[in-house]
Design goal:
The protein is α/β, with parallel strands linked by helices. The chain folds into two domains: 218 residues, Rossmann fold; 52 residues, no CATH class. The protein contains nine helices and 15 strands. The chain has a seven-stranded mixed beta sheet with strand order 6-7-8-3-9-10-15, sandwiched between helices. α2 packs parallel to α4, α3 packs across α4 and α4 packs parallel to α5. The two termini are 24 Å apart. Pfam families: ABC_tran. This is ABC transporter ATP-binding protein.
Length: 308
Amino acid sequence: MLSLRNLVKVYPGPVTALRGVDLDVPKGMFGLLGPNGAGKSTLMKILSGLLEPTSGEVTLDGLDLVRHPEALRPHLGYLPQEFGFYPYLSGQDMLRYLLELKGVTAPQGLKALCAQLLERVNLTFAAKRKVKEYSGGMRQRLGIAQALAGDPKLLIVDEPTAGLDPEERQRFYRLLAEMAHERTVLLSTHIVEDVAMLCPRFAVIRHGRVMAITSPSEAKAALHDTLFEGTVPPAGMAAFQQAHRVTQAVLFEGKNRVRIHAAPGTPVPPGFERTPPTLEDAYLLLMKDAPEPPASTAPTPSTPAVGT
């Protein structure tokens, strides 16, 4: 179990990136969902030992990672948001170089280990290709290969599907799901689909606070019979948004196809029909309801909601 208690990070300025985060992450896949600038990458860097928190506790199976960050390294696999590769090295040479930097050893040698890891992420066919010839998804799989070296107990992946095309994203989903059977995988993302496809449980974070801890099913069930969809002429859209809780608006055939949240007993605009809620609806409503951070930079811990 990975546990975070009252985790705070204040950068010079001062800028408060984390405001008292409390979170328990069990074995398996767990998502951290939030917009850019919410504090996700700061949290990932603290968990990976790249950044010290201002205050708070982080433990993995009872081991204090704030006081002893070096104790995490043998148990950690990390795929950061931006991972630099040498473009003119082959995939197998790049992977071997990364394993040497990490100090990874193997009974049968690094060459054999690299071959095993490349096979595991389905890159054997491209082992001798230069990395510059890899697609975005192939580079991400190469990043996962280095993260898996040493069979880590904790695998952290930060925005892993950003920029991937739909086919590569689906392939990467299957790979991450496979990894989560054997360890704790913490997935940080701003893409709602990532969480919907992969995470039995997830936390929503904004302004450095955990706003909710829930599951995709619970988040959608909380909006049962409260989502409606209809069309609104472009000229009337601004006034409509003032009068109703709009979750999404997409231009379709010259008109705005709009989804709104209407609590039981709330009047529904003419022409709007009830529609099943989506996880994106739940997420966007949470973002609308998220309070702005206080003017003071002093962080104050908050108790996250369970469900939505």
